[in-house]
Amino acid sequence: MAAPKRLFCTLIMSLLSQFIEDGEMAVLENRFGPTLARDYFGARELNLMLPELFNSADRFWETMIAEQGLDISTPTSAGKLREYVGPDPLLFRGQSNYSHGISASLHRFVQMEHDGEITEQKLSEVESAILEEARIRGLKKDVSPGELLMILQHHHAPTRLLDVSTSPLEALYFAVERNDTVDGRLFIIRLRNSTGMTLSNTSELPWTEYQRGKMTSSSEWTQTVRVIEERPLDPRMIAQRGRFLVGGLTKAYANLNMWHGADQLRVSERTAISMLCINFPKVALSVMNSRSSRWPAIAWTVRIPSEWKSVLRKKLDEIGINHDSIYPDLNNIQWRAEQAARLFLNRK
Fold first, then answer.
1. CA torsion angle 120 123 128 129 (round to 10)
2. Closest Cα partner for 225 from 167, 274, 281?
3. Measuring CA to CA, which of 69, 76, 105, 306 is 20 to 30 A from 271?
4. What's the domain count of the chain?
5. Which domain holds residue 309?
6. What is the predicted pLDDT for the residue at 263?
7. How crowded is residue 201: how many other Cβ atoms within 10 Å of its Cβ?
8. CA gyration radius, the chain
9. 154 and 178, same domain (yes or no)
């Protein structure tokens, strides 16, 4: 990242810390503590459901290579993984720490800086503050608010956009690129509504129309998970086969319950698992009941043991997926220093 952009993001973080005030409401306690997402996903991993595909780094790799070769635009495509999750187009997200939930950077930032309940109102206010600051500093005045949000996302400013990829292998890279002593995680996401949302040529963010009252948004928005369909704005989006997911902050609805063991999860606990309204089943798509069709998105997850990471990085590098291909526009000195240190430690 160029120095002015790095400075801008630092200023954004500082200003937002001052902007966010303590909330009026106390957050309901998470009864399960900081390990909730880890334990919740741990009971739903495809490693348990499909051990023949995910019981070793080599078998996992073979499965991902088979999936990468499929044309996701043709529902008739078949593969070992698709027999379980269905033939529809899939999106993928890799995370290097298996204990983290699915959360956009804006949600994580407000969570760290704000003591009260996180609401759609608060997210909207912080989002507006970010966009206003960017405009004041002359960043891309000729683009729509949505396009500016996408630019900010790729320069590490907090946004509600969630990075995903149409490619399992590019997503896998993010699950194994660092944190070699910690297990990683790959999410496989199926959207019920495949109609994309656009952020271009609009004077306001598309979700502005859903805002209602002081604390909440309409149920239509909080039950929305949509993919942003836009032309790539920079070389990284092309290299990563990147897309963005967006949706309202998940709420509790009678027909969209989440359970952890015998306990029905509260809203504050649900958002620790996913800020979006996503169902994480323990079964294949073909045996899910009719109620599951009400969810806007369904996702499965694969745990990637830490000892697989270096093996999978090597396999990815052999087919041309590495740091230089994923980040073609960056000369990332921090990453190169960490990589040199990692190679040194692995020789010990």
1. 150
2. 274
3. 306
4. 2
5. 33-102+161-197+210-347
6. 93
7. 9
8. 20
9. no
